[in-house]
Design brief:
Layout (H helix, E strand, L loop, with lengths): L2 E5 L7 H12 L4 E3 L4 E2 L17 H6 L8 E6 L13 E6 L10 H8 L3 H21 L5 E4 L2 H11 L3 E3 L18 E4 L8 H11 L3 E4 L5 H7 L4 E5 L3 H10 L3 E3 L7 H8 L4 E4 L4 H4 L8 E4 L4 H14 L5 H7 L5 H13 L8
Parallel strand pairs: 1-2, 1-4, 2-3, 4-5, 5-6, 6-7, 8-9, 9-10, 11-12, 12-13
């Protein structure tokens, strides 16, 4: 079987790229279109400005020649599923989410988060064109796989397509627990929809120590909200990240995530999660275990502060081993086993 993996961009090592890495272990001879034999699109020379290239991505994806492939797997939270394949090619789309900035979060992008009036004026016709293309390109997919029940519901809402759920892989065995030092941890790309601003303001006001791992276009604005007790660590190595997880008091996730691999990484480190109680985190954190997740209802500093207070009252009684055990169901071994069984099924659209 000749296989190809299509990913929307390969620039960092976040959740989507970790899925691609696991797919490469399942299909070691696969070609990657965008290690392995990697074929970039003609947009590759402009990759440093990749956030501005979305209007050109449909053209770039349709430019790929995928004739001769028996299997194409697109890894998608952008337009990757829009590649053109032969009628006898099986196309599986592993969907992290339909494009947020075109669908669910579009009103917020247009009215709340875009500060330039010129950019808003240009965004409306482009977004309309891209939504039409995105909906039409969903028909090119034989089978959708969602990374969570949360995203499965979005796929149905957006494309009116059924999907099965296979949670993304987390290298849970590579994390460890260490005695807590006096800081909380956030790990996130610094972008608007992650809603880090109110969390940073909350910690700046309370005086509790917070370390923020990640980088992105919101860095300057978020830095301006912080006080001396909030430390921006930037991008760190895997070993540094593992140590930060291992030594934190708890992990904080202030935004709504599609699934949320970072909370699972925190659990694998024996650390509880303080999170906005919406979206995929309600699947990744055992709701039945009150010591694993401390959820709050609204994205504001007051609700977050109350959740932190609840955590601190029970912090001495938390059992790290129980949290680490709860993370095991999201291991890479489980992901590879389920995806391998899906790929082995004969014929597109065959369901268990």
């Amino acid at each position: 079987m000749r296989a190809a993996i299509v990913h929307y961009w390969l620039l960092n090592m976040r959740g989507g790229e970790k899925v691609v890495e696991s797919l490469c272990r399942i299909l070691p001879d696969a070609d990657i279109f965008r290690s392995h034999r990697v074929t970039p699109s003609f947009l590759n020379p402009l990759r440093k400005r990749y956030r501005s290239l979305l209007p050109l991505m449909p053209m770039a994806l349709e430019h790929f020649d995928l004739r001769g492939y028996d299997l194409v797997i697109s890894s998608e939270s952008g337009p990757a599923k829009g590649v053109l394949t032969s009628s006898n090619t099986r196309h599986i789309c592993y969907c992290h989410t339909p494009m947020r900035y075109l669908w669910e979060l579009y009103p917020a992008y247009l009215h709340d988060w875009t500060r330039s009036s010129l950019k808003r004026a240009l965004m409306a016709p482009l977004a309309n064109y891209l939504r039409l293309w995105d909906f039409a390109s969903a028909a090119r997919v034989d089978e959708f796989v969602a990374n969570s029940e949360n995203v499965s519901n979005r796929i149905w809402k957006t494309y009116r397509r059924e999907s099965r759920v296979i949670h993304p892989p987390v290298a849970v065995e590579s994390f460890c627990w260490k005695p807590a030092q006096d800081y909380y941890l956030m790990v996130s790309e610094l972008v608007t929809y992650k809603q880090l601003d109110y969390a940073i303001a909350c910690f700046a006001c309370s005086g509790r120590k917070l370390k923020v791992v990640g980088d992105g276009p919101e860095y300057r604005r978020l830095k301006a909200l912080a006080a001396s007790n909030v430390e921006f660590c930037g991008r760190v190595s895997d070993s540094e990240l593992h140590d930060l997880y291992a030594r934190c008091r708890a992990f904080v996730m202030p935004g709504e995530e599609d699934f949320g691999m970072t909370p699972v990484e925190a659990l694998a480190s024996g650390k509880p999660v303080i999170a906005l109680g919406r979206g995929g985190v309600l699947e990744s954190i055992p709701v039945r275990d009150p010591e694993a997740g401390f959820f709050y209802p609204e994205p504001n500093a007051e609700a977050l502060s109350a959740a932190i207070d609840r955590f601190e009252r029970v912090e001495p009684s938390i059992v790290p081993g129980a949290l680490r055990s709860a993370a095991a169901r999201f291991s890479e071994t489980v992901f590879i086993d389920r995806m391998t069984k899906l790929i082995a099924q004969e014929g597109a659209g065959s369901w268990p």
